[in-house]
Design a protein that fits this description.
Blueprint: E1 4-8, E2 13-18, H1 29-44, E3 50-55, H2 66-73, H3 81-95, E4 101-105, E5 108-110, H4 112-119, E6 122-126, E7 130-132, H5 146-153, H6 155-164, E8 167-169, H7 170-175, E9 181-183, H8 188-199, H9 204-214, H10 224-238, H11 241-251
Parallel strand pairs: 2-3, 3-4, 4-6, 5-7, 6-9
Antiparallel strand pairs: 1-2, 7-8
Length: 260
């Protein structure tokens, strides 16, 4: 099964769908590799006018695949720098696309999944959607996604949710700027279609210039050096006993040993 699919309609709307519903669309190396290639293909296409990122199944994306991370502990001396760097590149490509990008979120969007939402220009969520930067509860840190999240919601708000790992309900996500609008789930396809119609009214080259020169470009805090640093910080954290305990506790459905 393809972990990520792409369709393009006659209006030039490219729809990317995360397709690992059995894992709540958790991010693993295979999905990230396919998603990265899809983003490159979209960027090269002159026919594509706008991009929609959604998912198949109950949840948008539960973040990094914790079973895959846990398995990495059993490989002595194994590092995940390349895999983490692939996540950073996907986020970077999504954020810097010259075509307008729209996230359509249902269910949970946690960690890296919430990071994907923050990289999109526009985000719609169902009223039942919920978000979390829950890495801290796993002994990890939201390292690679942090520049994009802070860009989207601001440092002050990010401090709270990075440090607590609290669940952010859809209405609160709207209030803090994590998503632009919230709709009943049945309304989402119609609202997304109307949005793509509005985006299709804009001149493609003007849209590209707006994105590259006015609302991104040099102001984006994620340079190549920053990307390398965030990858290193996450790899360093992954190798701690806290991370081993946090991931083991989550997968074992128990409370980690630091919770009293």
């Amino acid at each position: 099964m393809n972990p990520c699919t792409l369709t393009v309609d006659e209006r030039g709307v490219a729809r990317i769908r995360l397709n690992r519903p059995e894992t709540h669309n958790a991010l693993n190396p295979e999905l990230l590799e396919v998603l990265g290639e899809i983003l490159k293909e979209i960027e090269r296409s002159a026919q594509i006018r706008s991009v929609e990122l959604s998912s198949i199944g109950e949840h948008f994306c539960s973040g990094m695949d914790l079973k895959w991370l846990q398995e990495s502990f059993d490989s002595a001396g194994k590092t995940l720098d390349n895999e983490f760097y692939r996540l950073g590149l996907v986020l970077h490509r999504l954020y810097h696309m010259t075509k307008p990008t729209v996230a359509i979120v249902q269910g949970a969007a946690c960690g890296g999944g919430a990071g994907l939402v923050c990289c999109c220009d526009i985000a719609f969520a169902s009223s039942g959607a919920r978000f979390a930067f829950s890495e801290v509860r796993l002994g990890l840190i939201p390292s690679i996604i942090s520049p994009f999240v802070i860009q989207a919601i601001g440092e002050r708000i990010a401090r709270r949710y990075f440090l607590t790992g609290e669940v952010i309900e859809a209405r609160e996500a709207h209030r803090i700027g994590l998503v632009h609008q919230v709709f009943d789930e049945a309304q989402l396809p119609k609202e997304a279609l109307e949005l793509h119609r509005a985006l299709g009214q804009g001149a493609p080259q003007a849209i590209g210039r707006i994105k590259s020169r006015l609302i991104g470009g040099d102001r984006m805090p994620l340079s190549d050096l920053t990307l390398k640093k965030t990858v290193d910080w996450l790899e360093e954290t992954r190798n701690t006993q806290e991370a081993r305990e946090g991931i083991s506790a989550f997968l074992g459905k128990r409370i980690p040993n630091w919770v009293k």
